[in-house]
Fold this sequence. Notes:
Distance between the termini: 50 Å
Low-confidence stretches: 3-40
Structural class: mainly beta
Helix content: 10-25%
Number of helices: 8
Strand content: 35-45%
Number of strands: 25
Strand order of the largest sheet: 8-7-6-5-4-3-2-1-14-13-12-11-10-9
Mean pLDDT: 88
Largest sheet: 14 strands, antiparallel
Amino acid sequence: MRRLALALLLVPVLSLAGCPEQRPAPAPRRPPQGTLAAGAGALPDALTVRRPEGPEWFGLYLVGKKAGWTRTETRRELRDGRDLVVGRTETVIRATVGGRDVERRQEEERVWEARAGGRLLSFKAVWAGDGGDRTVTGTCDRTVCRSVQVAGSSREERTIEGVRETVELADAARLAAARRGAIVGTQLDLEKLRPREVRDQFVKRDVIAGAGVSEEVSVVTESEPGDRLAAEYRVADDGRILEIRLGDAVVARPEPEESAKRLDKVDLFALARVALPKPLPRDVPRTIAYRLSGLPPAFQKGDARQRFEKAAPGSAVLVVTARRPAAADPARDTPLARAGAGASPEDLAATPQVNFDAPGIKELARQIAGSSKGTYEAAKKLSADVYDRLEKVYGASHDRASDVLTAGQGDCTEHTVLLVAFARALGIPARPVHGLVYARYADGQDALYWHAWVEIRSAGEWIPLDPTFGQAVADATHLALGSGTQVDTVGLLGTLKVDGVEVRDSK
Length: 507
């Protein structure tokens, strides 16, 4: 089982590995303990760690409302005479977004060698429902994996290097709990087809209580570099996972199958919004100071656009300044021909979502940019085109830029992925940003809502553009909470509050 992550509006719980149940194979005879522990003596390993027999069912709760369920199982099997460990999970998320019912289902399977340090051999992931239907399959040889992604009539092949995933990650939280230590390794992220470093760390012993019964558990945190909020597992001594938590917002609890599948009616807009005491201006330039509570210190890191002022304990003052970027001066705008010089490869790369290497995207981006000489000049044209091109439809989700282009509609996530794809197609460093933005809907409530937009780099700075709102500079009602591949922001849902707002003149 992997850590929980929920992206903007409605994204599945990610990386809880698994696929549909298959007929059980005969359990192979276990090799001697000494050959399994890889020098760990009598410590449990990935094959001997205690875990429940059969599948485990969990209800998935978002801010106290059951929005989904997951079924997960790790078992040992014989296939064609080979001794293997197989991990499977099926996950369903269901909610209402903008009055539209949406559902996403994910199934996943990973297969490892059944030995200490056994490497990842193959994988399969299937996504269905909201976000589009697609399948990823692949095989691995040493540190290189080769994948095939199929979505509709399209077929994409990718090679992923640097994958060193071993069987220890099949049940890393349980193994860390049993060893009272850390399990560290490189895992293949099947959503983004990239290797990522994962650390499961035993933290302490604790007591968990429920239905008048208390039980001692081991607390294990799971995170990857850059995470500001780790997932937290509570593991019983017999291997049962009694709770998984990402902040106070996302919680998984073990339940019988029938109970796990009974879901609440979850309105993500109402559940996730952060109330404001008054309306906010959208003009640029403008500075707005927000007095916040519920924002952990790890999230309180400023940049050129956002800074934190000294505040009382338990609160934070975030000052957001929207201004004309240096690149608005053509003389300072980085020449488009040199846009990617010195940029991080991550901000230029094609990914399963930002698939600008799909037919037609790169050529269309060139047509839109036209005779642009500067990076920001071109990015503004791309953003304006996305704003005009896509019909604004909430909940009509598509994960891949190529699918967004075909569908011609979507909400902020679709506008964002298409603009990032257009920009990277021209060699412009671009990254998605997620956070909060001011809006007022039919109920008349002034509030901040979860939102996504884009940053591109020119003249030595990251410039925010909002293709959903048609803004060449995102206004000061945009509060950035994460960028790129960060997904820990979802842990703030339901806990972040705005206690006061001050509109200031920009300096």
